[in-house]
Amino acid sequence: MSTRWDDELRDPALRKMLEETLARVSEDDLVRGKWCIDGSEFTVWVDASLLTLGVALVVNGSIVEDVCWLRPENDARHINLAELDSTVKGVKLVLPWQARVLHIVTDSTCVYRWTTDSLSGKARLATKASGEMHIRRPLATLTETIEEYNLVVDVTLVQSSQNRVDRLTRVPCCWLDLPKEMEEPAPVNCAAVGRRFKPDHVADVHCQSGNPGVNQTLYFARLIDPCVSRKEVESVVRSCETCKSIDPAPARWKKGKLSVKNNWDRLAVDVTHHNGGDFFTMIDCGPSRFAFWRPLRQQDAAAVVRELESVFLEHGPPSEILTDNGTAFASGQFKQFTDGWGVWLRFRCTHVPSGNVIVEWNHRAIKTIAARKGCTVPEALYWYNVSPKDDVSPSTAPGEALHRYYVRVKGLEASPLPESELTRDSIKVGDVVWVKNPRGKCTTRYETGHVTEVISRKPCGLMGCPDTSGTCDRHHRRSRRSVTKLKRVPRPVNHHSGILRLHQTMTALKLAASGSLILRPRTGAQLKTRLPVCPSIEAPEEGDKQGDLTMPEVERESMSLPHSQSFYCQADAEFCYNTQGQPAAT
Q1: Are strands 432-435 and 291-296 parallel, antiparallel or unpaired?
Q2: CATH of domain 36-169
């Protein structure tokens, strides 16, 4: 190295470093091309290392500015303090761009907790170390800057491998290697071992030892041959049909998110009950989390479609709807309605309520407010929609972000295909997979099923899976060939309720024939078409809209019972009072 600026450097290693740096800067130089930067939403990536502090400013997915500062040689601060310092520098870097919405991305857990607690004010700063004042000072600077420039800021924690500024704070590994002439070769101890075990014999050891897992199979295999590798054992265990069909090992799912980035892109819907009433619930899966609760008189597809259409006419249609496998949502009428609006319909997996957990959390929040305050559901819903999600900023309330989205025009703009619908891991139509019975035990052998439909990256449709209810077409959560969550197919119509109504109707007709009950049908046409099983009862003539079906002529004032106490039959007839003027027993 040189002692003055004017000294000439002749070190070949340093010259190579400078040439590599110059080539890298010339290749990735940002000051070139045409710049078209639009918008007030920016993302700041921050990172720090033992050598430098790095900050990158991203707009619409592209880095528009990046800065790197060398740390002083005598800088003895902890790495978390250096990360906090880079965060403050990143916020100051974005101010000349006149940003309004700022997303800070860091890979330090301490910095993430410090900044979120300081900005939200929900918790006390979790530090009592000797450098507490060194932590509070930059946090106070950060908070005052955000308040002065009226910025909307959120902080995100990512892994270090996903941080886009990580390479700004590192040096190439080749620069840290010693010269070849200074390296000393390390001694190597080698031993020749003859291989006595063939790869096919690993499967025999796996079966003879009781089909254990990878670790136990590897142990027994190495008793015979120490050269057996773990990859060979994993391949055998993974392809074992016995291990797949009887209590298989839990599979690791690729975690996803039910929430979306934009408002009104995804709408989660469900039907819930509260204080004896049914409600059709809807909640935006975007940042707003705005919720709708509509009372239902009947839980059928017509009522659900009517309430959902009124919301679409007021606020526009979303891109997709997330729902469970209820009868109303799995009906053809609901499918026809969503197709007419150009909305993708997404079902959560059966036996997995967490597949629609956003609307389930909303149910709990609204019911808790109504129970604690002793108010009605609409009033509880109002307080939910006006309450800030961070308990501090009014801009985070669901009502504030209601109409901050683009409204698609019905019939002219189609909903784009969701990204998760475009790919599928390994399941194809026609594959035979192992399917677990939801009521089976750990010793129950899995049944086989045929894949009939690929729904998306995880759910798919199955056929030929026996179920405890007696139906032959069923969907389950776990299957083996490629373990997948499955969507339930609509069940056949249950006729037990119709048989019960018919039994009650015949009992009421017997009471009417004995003269103890008056039966008043609404129209004669309904009686003819819907009660062909009783030919002894004559329908009233045309024009007689309230003709009695019983012989006793008793003139009484017609009175109606409440809906919950009225007795109805298949003929739309109402049994109200007997001949003594008392309410009839139903």
Answers
A1: unpaired
A2: 3.30.420.10
Mean pLDDT of 86-99: 91
Q: Burial, 306: exposed, middle or buried (Cβ in 10 Å; 0-12, 13-18, 19+)?
A: middle
Which candidate, 519, 495, 535, places its Cα nearest to that of 575? 519
Tokens of 363: 């149910």
pLDDT score for 529? 35
pLDDT value at position 495? 45
Q: The pTM is what?
A: 0.44
What is the rounded CA–CA span in Å between residue 27 and residue 29?
A: 6
Within 8 A by CB and 6+ apart from 555, the residues are none
Backbone torsions φ then ψ of 2, nearest 5 degrees: -100, 160
Distance CA 463, CA 457 (A): 19
Angle, alpha carbons 159-164-168 (nearest 5°): 115
User: How distant, in Å, are the alpha carbons of 245, 258, 346, 411 from that of 316?
Assistant: 47, 21, 18, 12
**Per the structure block, which two tokens stand in for 404?**
């901050």
Percent of the chain with pLDDT over 90: 26
Domain ranges of the chain: 36-169, 201-239, 266-411, 423-493, 496-575
Average pLDDT of the chain, as a whole number: 75
| 293: Cβ contacts below 8 Å, ≥ 6 apart | 279, 280, 281, 282, 366, 377, 378, 381
- Look at domain 266-411 and name its CATH class: alpha beta
Q: What sign results for the dihedral spanned by CA atoms 244, 249, 255, 258? A: positive
Q: How far is CA 572 from the centre of its chain?
A: 44
Distances (CA, A) of 299 to 137, 284, 291: 58, 22, 19
Query: Residue 509 and residue 532: Cα distance in Å, rounded?
Result: 13
